[in-house]
Amino acid sequence: MLKSDIDHLATLNARNEDLRRDVDRMKQKQKILNEVELLKAQEPLIKYSEANKQLEDLKKQVEEQKVIVRKVNAEYAPLQELLKEHENELKKIIAKNADETKRCNGYAQELKDLLVKIKAIKDGIDARKADIKAIEKRIPEKEQKVRSMTNRINELEETLKEPPSNDTSEIEANITSINREISEQRDKNDEVQSEARELAIKKRQESRQIENKNQR
């Protein structure tokens, strides 16, 4: 075989090797693109079904707390009226006859009991209002998280519209970042849901305690 033939064969082999590497790179890039598409298909489910569900749960809790506050306020008003009636009655008794001290003492004790009950109800109202404010403060954070993740998807879509590149490091970094954010969002959602459940249990217990006091 002539030297020129040998050189030509070597050139062909080198070109064949380059083509093979190009094919491998294109396959790798296509694999990454497929993974990105898969993440894009899954991310809305995580983002909107979990994050938005959490937002709806928080808003629902706010409404439930507002209902409790209105209910407690409605119970608070009659107690105030009853307190005024007892005060007026006590004044009449004192003015009418000093010998009825024992009866006055009974009314005085009722007044004290009413004051204790009113204070407990007022404290409950203040606690409900504080809970509502705390929950409402967390809603904008969740909404911002949804907007941030939406912008991230848009950025990835714009990246995919750019001319193909053999450098896949940026795409791989984006995939890693998205996976990390998804994991963190799930952890946060689990934490918030746990807190919401504990808060709901606490509110039900306090509501039952208030109802039991009113029944007495």
H-E string:
HHH
Oligomer: single chain
Q: What does the overall shape look like? A: rod-shaped
User: What is the share of helical residues?
Assistant: over 70%
Keywords: Coiled coil
GO molecular function, one term: single-stranded DNA binding
GO cellular component, one term: Smc5-Smc6 complex
Can you characterise this structure?
The protein has helices spanning 3-96, 101-161, 169-215. It has 216 residues and is mainly α. It has one domain. The mean pLDDT is 73.
Task: Show the helix and strand layout.
Blueprint: H1 3-96, H2 101-161, H3 169-215
Helix pairs in contact: 1-2, 1-3, 2-3
GO cellular component, one term: Smc5-Smc6 complex
Keywords: Coiled coil
Biased composition (Basic and acidic residues): 181-216
Descriptors:
216 residues, mainly alpha, 94% helix, rod-shaped
Short description:
Residues 181-216 have a biased composition (Basic and acidic residues). With 216 residues, this protein is mainly alpha-helical.
